[in-house]
Fold:
Amino acid sequence: MKKFALVMIVAVLALSMTFAQGAPEAAKDSFELVMLVKSMGNGFFDACYNGAKEAMGTLGNVTVEYMGPAQATAEGQIEIIEGLISSGVDGIAISANDADALIPVCKKAMDAGIKVISFDSGINAGGRIVDLIPSNTTLIGQQQVQLASELIGNKGEIAVLSASAQATNQNAWIDAMKAEMPNHPDMTLVEVVYGDDAPDKSYRETNALLQKYPNLKCIVCPTTVGLLACSQAVKDSGAKVEVTGLGLPSEMKGYILDGTCKQMALWNPIDLGYTATYILEALLSGKATGADNTSFECGRMGTVNVENNGIAVMGTPFVFKAENIEKYAAIF
Ligand code: RAM
Structure:
């Protein structure tokens, strides 16, 4: 009897403690996600969102909203994340405008129970669980220089027109390009300029390069927005300068076919957005943790491994030329 009373007291105490703390939340069976991109109006990110929508259909338990600031700035993204913390969402996949400036607000979001990952353009460790990058950084940098080298007979001046000066992804690729330059001793990288992923600024920066470097042989643009604007500027100027970089086939088809940009590279942005969505869902449903040396099962993309510091890497970039551009332009 004494034992029964003791059990009862413990049970009542446990119950009252549960009520004092609020009843434990039932596990959720559907999740609200946000794809937060560098800026709106960028066809590359629109294609990433198409991949997120595809994942929404196949997963069946997530909704993904598409958001981004008007200009590619960290401040604009911070403001949006503050709003999402107040309104409450389950997960955010962000292509970051700055690797460090976004850490505090993303930490705050994670403290509030939101799962945060970066994709495309990363946030440094501490500000996200996983950073999904489209391909090996060194490989992308090497390939950018090699594409230019093939166009100019491995000789002469080249310049880089990048996105914003703080963009994590472009800065990492440019470092890899600089590391590749000694393998091309007759090529010189004269300057890196920034178009901020804004078409008008990218166009102006291209014209400034053409004016400043009369012997320029090639402009390399590791940004889809930059490459499109640069191709237009070079074509409008009539300059005999080659153009290459990372381009969206649907946007670049005309310039590939008319020879302004004879070759360029990119990965599939639809796959990138699809995979980011699968990763967030797996983190939220508890299927995966995102810890180093673990992996995610990402539907038709198969297994994506997490390497050191939460970095997960996808495939190899494709190269697009006149002979294959039409096929890809119809897809992304
Ligand atoms: C632009 C953006 C994006 C980058 C592509 C290649 O659309 O800067 O972050 O991955 O180019």
